[in-house]
Design goal:
The protein is of the alpha/beta class. The protein has 3 domains: 83 residues, OB fold (Dihydrolipoamide Acetyltransferase, E2P); 159 residues, Rossmann fold (3-Layer(aba) Sandwich); 53 residues, Ribonucleotide Reductase Protein R1, domain 1 (Orthogonal Bundle), CATH 1.10.40. It has 12 helices and 13 strands. Helix 11 crosses helix 12. The protein is globular and about 70 Å long.
């Protein structure tokens, strides 16, 4: 059986930079269950584990494969395989991990992040800010998807609220029940594109993906009627090809999204601009004299809630207080698994 990996997001750029080692083949991680991976290759799906060498060289959890990664594998008996290396990542969406200093990768090599939020009682613009913060840092393009439009009675007000916190980000209103807005998703779902769906439990991610697939592939569950909050239905990340030629990555619902890394300047662009006008370079926007941000709050051009959200996320971010060299090292860690791994990749490129 021969698989056309273009269905799974293979592009010319990925193919031409893949390693040419004897006995190895290119594959993409399409699901993960603890230390066991499902990898799609040109010869079909294989269960795979990382080699002892790769595990030993990994200096953090982010240096292990994740859904969306392109990897070099060596086939073994019984249609299984060993993952020998991870190809350089084009984008990385990461979140904070409970009781861990390091982060947890949600998905890699994605072009677009669909940030899904339902237009019901669980609507929360502060949550949108959190998702945008990690999305802008990932290297992928964020798009806000407002689901369950068929049950919304105050759409105009909710759209205004979202617009206030998402300057420069496209917003699509849709309903999996009526089909509203599905056509607006299509420009992001062309051949070679990979899209990750993220959002809280019960917002309709799996239902929306089923509509795009044209069949019920993913298990769905309706939200609780008493509080409009959902329970987890998707329990692990998985990559699925669409009829359009794109791939989607469905992710488990995250009610509390912990920030590991993020781009606050992009998410809170107006506050970043005002900060440059503050009297002190290290202004915390609390009680310092000459604070342009506080002045904007007093003038009503920035809301108190918006500033509080910015300050809260700033305190949470693992990158807070790092200098430029430390920031670069942290980025290399996420993309390659460390400096030594990056050097090995460069050496292989030169050798090829």
């Amino acid at each position: 059986m021969t698989i056309n990996l273009t269905k799974y997001g293979l592009t010319t750029a990925v193919e031409t930079t893949s390693l040419k080692e004897d006995g190895q083949m290119l594959g993409r991680v399409i699901s993960q269950h603890r230390d066991l991976y499902q990898v799609i290759t040109a010869t079909g799906e294989r269960q795979a584990r990382v080699t002892g060498k790769l595990a030993h060289a990994a200096t953090s959890p982010t240096a292990f494969p994740a859904v969306g990664d392109w990897v070099q594998v060596c086939p073994t008996a019984d249609d299984q395989a060993q993952i020998e290396a991870i190809r350089p990542r084009q984008s990385v969406l990461a979140r904070g991990a409970v009781n861990q200093h390091d982060g947890q990768i949600i998905a890699t090599n994605i072009n677009t992040i669909f940030i899904c939020m339902s237009l019901n009682a669980d609507f929360n613009v502060r949550r949108v800010e959190r998702y945008l913060t990690i999305a802008w840092d990932s290297g992928a393009l964020p798009v806000i998807i407002l689901t369950k439009a068929d049950v919304c009675t105050d759409l105009a007000a909710k759209l205004r609220a979202v617009a206030d916190v998402s300057v420069g980000v496209s917003t699509i209103t849709c309903s999996a029940e009526t089909g509203q807005g599905l056509d607006d998703l299509q420009p992001y779902l062309t051949t070679g594109q990979t899209v990750a769906f993220v959002g809280s439990s019960g917002v309709g991610k799996s239902t929306l993906i089923n509509r795009l697939l044209g069949q019920d592939v993913l298990t769905t569950k309706t939200i609780r009627e008493d509080d409009d909050k959902g329970r987890h239905t998707t329990t692990s990340r998985q990559l699925i090809p669409l009829p359009t030629g794109a791939c989607v990555i469905d992710t488990p619902g995250m009610r509390e999204l912990q920030i590991f890394v993020g781009d606050l300047d992009q998410t809170f662009a107006e506050i970043a601009t005002l900060s440059a006008q503050c009297k002190f370079n290290d202004c915390t926007h609390t009680s310092e004299p000459g604070c342009a941000v506080r002045a904007a709050v007093e003038a009503g051009t920035v809301t108190v809630e918006r500033l509080q959200s910015y300050q809260k996320l700033q305190r949470e971010m693992s990158y807070q207080g790092l200098n430029s060299r430390q920031l670069e090292q942290a980025k290399i860690q996420r993309m390659f698994g460390g400096k030594q791994a990056m050097k090995r990749v460069k050496q292989r490129y030169h050798r090829d």
